[in-house]
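Hey, I'm writing a tutorial for new members on how sequence and structure tokens pair up, and I'd like a real worked example in the thread rather than a made-up one. If someone can provide the structure for the chain below, I'll link this post from the tutorial.
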Amino acid sequence: MRVQLSEGRSSATLSESPHRLFRGRRPQPAREIGLHVPRVRSGHCSGRKVGQSTVRASAHHPAGTGISRACWLFARHCLLKRIPCGAAWRDKASRFGPKPRCWEHVHGYRAIQAERTRSRCSHYGGPLAEGLMVGDTVRCPWHHACFSLRTGEAIGAPAFNPMSCWRVEKHNDTVFVRDKIEPGGTRKAKRPSAKPERVVIVGGGAAGFAAAEMLRREGFAGDVTLISADDAAPYDRPNCSKDYLAGNAPEDWMPLRPAEFYKDQSIKLELRSEVAAIDAKAWQVTLANGQSMPFDKLLLATGAEPVRLDIPGADQPHVHVLRSLTDSRAIIAKAETARRAVVLGASFIGLEVAAALRTRKIEVHVVAPDRRPLERVLGPEFGEFIRAMHEEHGVTFHLEETATAIEGANVKLKGGTTLPADLVVVGIGVRPRVQLAERAGLKTDRGVAVNEYLETSAPGIFAAGDIARWPDAHSRQQLRIEHWVVAERQGQTAACNMLGQRQRFSDVPFFWSQHYDVPINYIGHAEKWDALDIEGSIDKRDCLVRYRHDGKVLAVASIFRDVDNLKQEAAMERVAPAA
């Protein structure tokens, strides 16, 4: 089969944010093979070597069950069975210039262009050709962003920018890539009124931003006000403890959208603003400065706040927490002159801070009451690996220990040890900001209680992100989870439901953590388990770990098993009970 293009060479921007390159991720190159496939009937498609063109197959897509067998190239919804899984067309026709263009994920009459040999996710640049196709979507192997194969739209966070997409036609044994299709991403809102007319979002983090963006993407034409206590417009918070803190990411990597986005989309951004009260009966919020704002729909996305250390000396200027971009900047400023740092707490944030400070060549000591770091979340084997990995990079652990006082530049431990430190970072957990919801009379239960549509006990008021406790279809439990991607996707779902769409939030929870050059991906949620299955080797940084309870897989953690992690996520979605 031949691939022809009906337009001249063009360059498609896959991301507005050039910083979306995940430094710690090890590339997994796909092997290339030339295939000769005989012509078949016009009702089907086949791959065929034509001139210098080749069909590329990924070695990371072995045949397996249902989803894993699915090829990446589709036309008229007919599977191209003669093209291996992960295959793509690469066009090397000279009239399109010396650089090849790769066309992947042909689906019906759509094709996604792969720039620079293979598709790159518009989030952090993950290779989509090494991801997984589920139904009519493709998922990024790194952070599980989800794109529509029909439109190229980013339909699942953490990606927001669409992929370039072209109309495809098939005549006999030739597929023609025709005109470019308008991407299904954010569109400029028009001003005619619609019900609801006024949406107010309290909180400018992951959930708040994702909700505002989705409202406009869905064509909502009413007023959108995003109220944030932060000094900065919505930014990439996970990077505050990763590349940005380590000095590997410049300042302009951080904003989720440039300043003009909010103006272009008619989103009123109220920074450095606190909401003092919500009147659920009068349908209005009152700011700390006395200003009142009426609303037709309200989203609470106030997030969580770090737990403060309650010991003598914890209020000194060289003692920091890390929750915001302002916090990260303060730690960076102190790190310019610091020689020794003490991190209190072996949480994900604490250990990411330790890794970032070691990248800056600062001596780091980690103090935690745990027997092993992250053992409660990942288990003892993973905990031992994480400890050894950090020790290899020069971190010193003081486990089963706690700090009792910070006296000047010295941290006193319960066991009698004194640690010199000109920088102290406290990472002992966070608590949800539910005070506003409680004052408004909303039902709370270690968070703000919501139904499957993310609506609170007050009609028209929704909650998403770190404060929301929702009925999880997978664990059959009421969950409140502090994950970035979960917050973004809840914001997207809440936005659709504020517009009357009645979408259940049923996504499998996902988060990632970065330690030096080792990424850890985690799906599901397991507060306890009675069996732990390790496939591969944790020590060799090539593993898939399943956490089971009563025979059911509740969660999966992996290192460099990206496609396997995606398959497990898809399997959990399939077996989720009906709502």
